[in-house]
Amino acid sequence: MATSYVDYTLPNTQFTFDLNQNPFFKKDDQNYINFLSIKQLNTLGNNSLLDIFLSTGNVVEPHIHQNASELVYCISGSAVVSLINPFTNELLNFTITPGQVANVPQGWWHYEMATVDQTHLLAIFDAPVPEAIFGSDILRLTPASVLAHTYCLDENKVKDTLAPIQKTVIVGPPVDCATQVSPATNNMPHPNSQTNAQPYVNRLPYWGTWVDPRIIHEPGCPYYTEPPVNMSYQG
Fold this sequence. Notes:
- The chain is globular and about 65 Å long.
- The chain is mainly β.
- α2 crosses α3 (about 155-160).
- A hairpin with a 4-residue loop joins β6 and β7 (about 90-95).
- The protein has helices at about 135-140, 145-150, 155-160, and strands spanning about 25-30, 30-35, 50-55, 60-65, 70-75, 80-85, 90-95, 100-105, 110-115, 120-125, 135, 170.
- It has a 6-stranded antiparallel beta sheet with strand order 1-2-3-10-5-8, with no helix packed on it.
- Helix content is about 10%, strand content about 30%.
């Protein structure tokens, strides 16, 4: 149990709160999130929650919580909770229906997608105020030149692909998505699918040696350019 420093005798001591009065994000009337932390309820202690409402095919975008674990409880509807196990490099998909939960350990990359309309999820955190790093922010704030160089991609294509991401998405696809069609079955994660699993490798290429970045060139890479900065590394 978290240690509380609240003076329970004060008139401003809070024991109740209406989450409907504290919206975190709203895409439309079927897709929105309300939020509760110690900032809204000063007796809350070391926990917090998100009240999540989704329609079919809508997804809480890929993200991590750097300061909290997350327990996702399904109140109504159905959703697939997907996460990457960083110890095995496996993508895991778990379907939850009313009364079922999925747990996401602290710092793990994950996302949730509704598979039916009127899906209602409760995300519970073991932190008084949960923090998050969203995938859309990583994509839009990392220079296209760095992504292209790092992954051997066409920089112009990277720029064109990521140009629509102008802000944090949170619940996707965005309302102004021009390419989105009605959610198709093949867009849904397959429960407990591990088709993206990769063998766990506890090393990196060139690790522990001096490297001239100009000579790192993967065979067949048509987009290789000079690195944006000159640097070398010795482990």
